[in-house]
Amino acid sequence: MDLERIPANTLARPGPGADAEHAAGGAAPPRPRRRARRTARVLVPVFAVCLALMAAAAPTPAPQGIGDRLFPALGNPGYDVLAYDLSLTYDGDNRAPLEAVTRITARAEAPLDRFNLDFSHGKVHSVTVNGRAARHTGAGQDLVVTPEKHVRPGERLRIVVRHTSDPRPPAAGQGEGGWVRTKDGLAMANQADAAHRVFPGNDHPSDKADFTFRVTAPRGVTVVANGLLAGRAEAAGGATTWTYRTLHPMATELAQVSLGRSAVLRRPGPHGLPIRDVVPAADRERLEPWLRGTPAQLRWMEKRVGTFPFETYGVLVADTNTGFELETQTLSLFERRLFTDSRYPDWYVDSVLVHEMAHQWFGDSVSPRTWSDLWLNEGHATWYESLYGEERGGPSLERRMREAYSASDAWRAEGGPPARPKAPGNGKISIFRPVVYDGSALVLYALRQEVGTDAFARIERRWVAEHRDGTADTAAFVRLASDVAGRDLGAFLHPWLYGAKTPPMPGHPDWTVDAPGTEQPRSPTPHRLTEPPRIR
């Protein structure tokens, strides 16, 4: 996440798993057009029906969605969000709701008499649209807004929602994620479908937007969020308001706000890139040996895929127990115990750091157009994690891919093929199955075997350059790979991406697939740390 989990091959037994700026000369890709919502309106003479009858004739507010195959209730048709401005007031109690104001700038893509925002797990005080009070009601996990005036296609919308943002866990059956309570504050973990438990918005990665965060917190609490610090100002009662802004569009699931008694460590990265790490203040010296490696890891990634795509980068270490790491944009979230538990070998910790760093290119800068395209995020992050781990003393890429090949049919039976994963079961994180990690890195290995190392490297660079700050899907990846290879790769890649059975591996006729039902090693990424590492 991702929700990134702990590798089974570092454990005695796996625990219960849930586990733009564009390249020179390139044009910015258009925002994907989403299915427009068109509300049927009854046209009658204005004097023929009273307002009460018009209200009675209006359709009943209902939850919507853009029809994502895995999360059909996420996202909302009819508008495109351009920017979020999120204000939060934190009183120092991470068990109490925060007062919040979410300001949304959007553009209508269809005629709208009403529209939906994804939002749950908070109380809405009021809503205005273009400065006028708007009616609002809840419907499922949606906030349904009826503006005073009909909205025309192309019209700019300025939506202001005053609400609470609740860090307490949702009631049973209402999902999970959003705010994560840490030992001394809060952080966010919104992937895949939990940003709307923190703030109202269009909670789907196909609708990326600019973000501004204005967070007021008591003296002694450090606030860090995505992007760059734009200012600090004194607030009432000795509190401080911190303002952060992103310089690149971001999906809602990648939003991050950290509140706690933290130290912020700064160092220069490649090309002067500002690196800032956020760690528990008491752990700054203990964590420094891990953090000082970030500039070299960034250079390692840039050598393979091109310049880092954002304005800053860093590591957020949270003293909490989530069971995963997460690639929140410009500030990746990690559990403290990853760095303090001596059971993890150094190569493994370093490779997990690179996994989340690789996501900044694959998943953050180039976001999935649908959640079925998740393999493009996780397969690539696992690929670079594996290469880096091999260089640092971990298992070789070829060994890891051969083991993944053996398990691939079982993983496909359990979770579906890489580009058509099965729908989530109990809990959103169930889409993060082994097939989207090593099972999807295996697709990239097969592609490299088929087209050669040089062509594969060109595919990787072009992919992140041409889709930077945008969204892209599996079909676009197949087209780009075919263009680089100079031949249609659709027939080759289709069974790897969509087949129930794993195709033969080019160059390795001796590799065999174990039958489903055979006990298999789990994917080396998505598992909880419960026992000492087992190095194979």
Keywords:
536 residues; alpha+beta; eight-stranded mixed sheet; three-stranded antiparallel sheet; 21 strands; disordered N terminus; disordered C terminus
N-to-C CA distance: 25 Å
Kindly state the number of beta strands: 21
Poorly predicted runs of 5 or more residues: 2-57, 522-536
Estimate percent helicity. 10-25%
Structural class from helices and strands? alpha+beta
- Order of strands, main sheet, comes to 5-4-8-2-1-11-14-13
Average pLDDT, all residues: 87
Please compute the radius of gyration using only Cα atoms. Answer: 23 Å
Count of individual helical segments: 11
What would you call the shape? globular
Strand-residue proportion:
15-25%
* Largest sheet, strands/sense/barrel: 8 strands, mixed
How would you sum up this structure in a few lines?
It contains eleven helices and 21 strands. With 536 residues, the chain is of the alpha+beta class.
Tell me about this structure.
With 536 residues, the protein is α+β, with helices and mostly antiparallel strands. Helix content is 25%, strand content 22%. The protein contains 11 helices and 21 strands. The strands form 7 sheets. Strands 5-4-8-2-1-11-14-13 form an 8-stranded mixed β-sheet, with no helix packed on it. Strand 9 and strand 10 form a beta hairpin. Residues 2-57 and 522-536 have low confidence and may be disordered.
Give the SSE map.
Layout: H1 51-57, E1 79-89, E2 98-108, E3 115-118, E4 124-129, E5 132-133, E6 135-139, E7 142-146, E8 156-165, E9 178-181, E10 186-189, E11 210-217, E12 222-225, E13 228-234, E14 240-245, E15 257-260, E16 262-268, E17 274-280, H2 284-291, H3 294-305, E18 315-318, E19 332-335, H4 337-340, H5 346-361, E20 366-368, H6 374-391, H7 397-415, H8 438-451, H9 453-466, E21 470-472, H10 474-485, H11 490-498
Parallel strand pairs: 1-11, 18-19, 20-21
Antiparallel strand pairs: 1-2, 2-8, 3-7, 4-5, 4-8, 6-7, 9-10, 11-14, 12-15, 13-14, 16-17
Helix pairs in contact: 3-5, 5-6, 6-8, 7-8, 8-9, 9-10
